[in-house]
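Lab notebook, page 48
Experiment: co-folding of the full assembly
Goal: obtain a model of how the components sit together before planning crosslinking
Operator: M.T.
Materials (sequences as entered):
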Amino acid sequence: MPSLTINGVAHDVDVPGEMPLLWVIRDVVGMPGTKFGCGVAQCGACTVHLDGTPVRSCSTAVSQAAGKQITTVEGLSPDGTHPVQKAWVEAAVPQCGYCQSGQMMSAAALLAKSKTPSDSEIDAAMSGNICRCGTYPRIKAAIKRAGELS
Amino acid sequence: MRRAVFIRTTAVFGAGLALGACAKHPAQVPDYQPSPEPSVTFAPNAWVHVRTDGTVAVLINKSEMGQGVYTGLPMLVAEELDVPFDRIRVQIAPAQDQYADPVFKDMTTGGSTSIADMYPIMRGAGAAARAMLIAAAAKKWNVDPSTLTTKAGNVVDASGNRTASYADLAVSAGTETPPKNVKLKDDTQFTLIGTSPKRLDLDAKVRATATYGIDVVVPGMVYANILKAPTFGGTVDTVDDAAARKVAGVFDVVKISSGVAVVAKNTWAAMQGRDALKVTWKNDGPAAHVNTAKMFADAEKAARTTGVVAAQHGDVDKAQGKVVEAVYRGPFLAHAAMEPMNATADVRDDAVEVWAPTQVQTRSRDAAMKITGFPADKVTIHTTFLGGGFGRRLDPDYVVDAVEISKAVKKPVKVTWRREDDIKNDFYRPMSVNVVRAKLDSAGHVAAWEHRVASPSIVKRWAPAMLTKSGVDFSAIDQVMPSYYAFGNLRTTYADFEPGIPVGFMRAPGANWNSFATESFIDELAHAAGKDPVAFRLALLDPKKGARMRSVLQLAAQKAGWGHPQHAGASQGVGICDWGGSYGALIAEVSVKGKDITVHRAVMSADCGIVVHPDIVAAQLEGAINYGIAMAMTSKITFTDGKVDQNNFYDYTVLRMKDAPKIETYVVKSKEKPTGIGELGTPPIAPAIGNAIFKATGKRVRQLPFSDGLA
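Observation: model returned without errors.
Model output:
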């Protein structure tokens, strides 16, 4: 019975250790912000942070997350005040919005390392996150703006 | 798809389908999800509810899949009602006939038609509400209504001395008779239309509180995953579910029409159970052993030797000139919306409730009626946010899955497909082979244009009444003979080449492939005639039917700096198209090194009539261009012995940020009625890239994706 710390809150969950963290977060803990997109760490929709490092929760066993600080999109801020959320609003990034929680989590992890990432650093950090609505130009602009707001 | 495709003969809607709530997270989504309306006090019509708290609910009959209908449509109401936009609250309309689209005659979102179809209706709804509020104030003050006006959610009298808020007038306005005719604002009076207020779904999407279909939770719900047939037309032969039933968390295994469903206590357990199934399949159908190479060979033969005439002017055979001919080949494509297919259904003894990310509420309801035998008034369809649509959710097969499973297990069920199920069980963008032949006269004019298409028909399944008597699917031949070009002699033919693969509408269907063939071939003709590709197109445009396109193409050429690429060593290519009544021109800047193609920059101009929300228009063009880049550059669905070769995003490759170009969009100022914008950007990017590749390398690529075609 792993104990998980999600956004600072402890959750005792009765699940097999090999169950992907994504499905524990979504179906067992009941936090739907983290999305299922591909199941094989190809699209980034399920991105969460483990001790600040972005991981694909669809391909991370829940046992690997036990004892670590798990941050989901709900952990950025509930009221839209995280710089990434503010910049996402300013640039009107989301269209369908489905991939954006993963995009914002990858962006937040990048900005935690550097507030002024270059275009190529942004490309490298963000190219694991697919957006089929094609919001890439706005994501890139919003990341730079979020750096200014941080 | 073209709107003409959608005119259906009947519109059977039940009355009284209730609004319901997503049980688990109602507090997070108060104004974006179906919810009760305790504070409604004045509902002058189906679309507008003025509340006593000063907010105004607008009922939206279109699915929000990113294209901005939850913002654009309410703006039309707010404009006429004169209410500040931040007081607008979106409510999703229930599946009732009063919410049918006036052209589709049912609840369908597609074809870039939402703003165009709803423009007069939503404006009229807002204007009617305003007239009744004015009438109520006139009675209260005992003055002639014509002396009153409105401003920012208030009725004010001519002197400016008296003001009454809509909130205060709501109760008495409810006793007024709705006006039969209302005067709409003149375009010059607009204060909201043409501006870009904050999207009403934006906060929910950045706070991750927007509820998509996959997020729906209802009390007592179980989770399902389905093993589907490995080939199209396959059916279950034998099932050994002993191992599946032993998987921890698995409750049940049920056979449904699309395969074998495993029902469990969570999605992952259902997937584990599905992987433990041992199922054999039978398939004697036409698609059981299809192979891509043979399909293309057969389709080319069909294009050349069969096909019915779709359009004909003059005589292409008698026309004189130098013959130029080329064959273009386009693959099947999967939509690959980010939210995998899913739906939740609760089949009870006397009613069924469905929660679905769907573009087709009426078809979803009809599907649930057919499975359960319930009448329309016992079927409730809740529309969630859609994690991408692109036409995939114009078919309700995932709703069928959920309803069938819930009926079998007698519990509410959420079915979630894997990405692999999505890639392998799509209604694909049809493959197509286009044989294009033209004659150039001595002056370099197009004396004859013949375009022969062989491609599976979407329309014959989806809206068979829309096939012509001779069997032409107008979706399949869209953009093979654009009306803005003045071809002296013209003939187009269509062969319904049917390999047995399910096909469906995908962003700018027909056009998203045919524009590549047409606009690449126009480029071939320009080069054969020794003319500049932009100048050649301008000369070919019809003086009348090509007038709006002329402005659009000239604007793109000017903004792109045609002939002068921004990137050192890059080459430019052009493509144009019309879609949903709108016109677009795109110029791409491309570099080619070996087999590596880099798209640096895409400059697009558009004319979509009156622009309601300029920033959403820009976003739709940006997104449609990027969607088209994936279609052009790397995406394809192929078949080996009946099976889809691709699985997931590692082999069905789509655009990623590192390959996304800089995009600039420019929209022509227009007083024409508003027309579609959600798909216009997709068709012209592939030919613009291909034409730039030719400019850079001298190699004409006639097969997509370019990753294959340039090989």
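Interpretation: Chain B has a mean pLDDT of 93.
Next step: discuss with group before ordering constructs.
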